[in-house]
Amino acid sequence: MNRRPLARAAARRPGALSAGTLAAGALALLLAGASARAAPLSPGTPPEPAAAPKAAPDAAPRLAGALTDAGAWRAYRARFVSEAGRVVDSANGGISHSEGQGYGMLLAVAAGDRGTFERIWGWTRANLMVRGDALLAWRWEPDKRPAVADLNDASDGDVLVAWALVEAAEAWGDPGYRIAARRIAVDIGRRLVLFKTGKPPLLLPGLAGFSAEERADGPVVNLSYWVFPAFPRLALAAPEFDWARLTRSGLDLVLSARFGPARLPTEWISLKGDEPRPADGFPAQFSYNAIRIPLYLAWAGIGTPAHYAPFLALWGERERGGLPVVDVAEGRPVEWLEEGGYAALPALAACAAEGTPVPASFGAPQARENYYPATLHLLALAAAQMRYASCLGR
Q1: In the Cβ-directed half-sphere of 156, how many Cα atoms lie within 13 Å?
Q2: In terms of Cα–Cα distance, which of 84, 159, 94 is closest to 127?
Q3: Which residues in 225-322 belong to E strands, given as ranges?
Q4: Where is the region Disordered (predicted)?
Q5: Do strands 269-270 and 220-221 pair parallel, antiparallel, or not at all (unpaired)?
């Protein structure tokens, strides 16, 4: 059984936010005509500056059109995207979450499918943007009333949705997407990134439950929430925040948060004290979340061979198919992720770090996989198309 979502559910619920009432100020009224697709303004969100400071040069290739396998996208859309726009996590009781909505929006842009993007964004806006700010409630359960029982957010979902909106604004020239992206990005920068601690900035996994004030071993972070390819794009929406510095802090953590004989990061990492360590109360494992770290490094086109080394070493020594979930203290596998889509991650990482051509299976998504491996496979395909055409034999 795929236990990734269940593990994340337990890990993400150290505390729930009290329900906030939706707010909209005078600025929302002024922008209503231009932002029919955008979410309500969170209290105090500054308007987009008329002449915003120029962001750092954005060398990222375009996401739009990066998913060239139209058949793979149609199959994915048919299996996981409802008519209403809800992205369904098929291995976790059919729930939906902000991560899945963000991934679905990104893939829709990559496939050039504006209609599906609109449906996913509309459902997200109506069902997950129910807090008193511009962040998203992280989990929606179809068999519960209310379907959103925990108003806490998950910062990776917030980042993914904001990034997708930036890409959509560029792809389709819609100012409403740009305004919505800015609202979310501003609240990420204000509420979730610790910029002013005298230390490198940190991305909290959620607004509640992870800070030094809330945990004895806090702050606690999750390295897979550093969605590296998103940060230079968020700088276009909210240039007043130092997203490049956040990228650098994540790169440093990839090198320093290495534990046990395999030198792998755990899912949840305590940054209390001088050195990172596995966080208290969570399995000390390299698992479902952390396998995304090299995906995001490769997609952003950043990092050195040293950043990829422990992942490539682990995946290069496999004695069976699939990816291992590793007990970092002992350096031994405790579970295997055996669906074929997971294999796209080692292939992309080896391409990015060593220029290794991807195998033929990389370009052939399987039709019967669950949401998570199927999604990772399409994301890896888009990343390779954007940055590593040579590994694809092109």
Answers
A1: 21
A2: 84
A3: 269-270, 277-278, 285-286
A4: 38-57
A5: antiparallel
Which residue among 99, 113, 133, 339 is the active-site one?
99
Side chain identity at 185, as an amino acid letter? A
For residue 193, the cross-strand partners are 203
Q: Contact 340/59 with Cβ under 8 angstroms? A: no
Lowest-confidence segment of 11-15, 44-48, 179-183, 235-239 by average pLDDT: 11-15
Question: pTM for this structure?
Answer: 0.87
Closest to 63 measured CA to CA, from 102, 120, 35: 102
pLDDT digits (tens, 9 = 90+) for 20-42: 332 333 233 223 333 333 333 34
Q: 346: which 2 tokens?
A: 């080692």
Which uninterrupted H or E stretch holds 327?
Answer: strand 323-327
pLDDT 10s digits, 278-334 = 999 999 999 999 999 999 999 999 999 999 999 999 999 877 789 999 999 999 999
Q: What are phi and psi of 137, to 5 degrees?
A: -60, 140
Give the largest Cα separation in the chain, rounded: 61
Distances (CA, A) of 247 to 1, 129, 184, 239: 34, 26, 18, 14
Residue burial 301-318, b: 16+ Cβ < 10 Å; e: rest: bbbeeebbebbbebbeee
Q: Is the pLDDT of residue 5 over 60?
A: no
Please give the C-alpha separations between residue 70 and each of 54, 104, 207, 273, 378, in angstroms, as whole numbers. 36, 15, 37, 49, 11
Nearest alpha carbon to residue 65 among 17, 112, 10: 112
Q: Which residues pair with 153 in a beta bridge?
A: 137
- Between CA 289 and CA 297 the distance in angstroms is 14
Which residues are within 8 A (CB) of 309 and not within 5 positions of it... i.e. 6 or more apart?
353
What is the C-alpha to C-alpha distance for residues 259 and 279, in angstroms, rounded to an integer? 12
143 carries an active-site annotation: no
DSSP string for residues in 161-194: HHHHHHHHHHHH--HHHHHHHHHHHHHIIIIIEE
Q: Which domains does the chain have, with CATH numbers?
A: 66-392 (1.50.10.10)
Q: Are 136 and 161 in contact (CB under 8 A)?
A: yes
Residue 219 near residue 193 (C-beta atoms within 8 A): no
- H/E element, 225: none
Residue 207 has φ and ψ, to the nearest 5°, of -70, -30
203: tokens are 């991305």
The active-site residue out of 89, 150, 156, 339 is 156
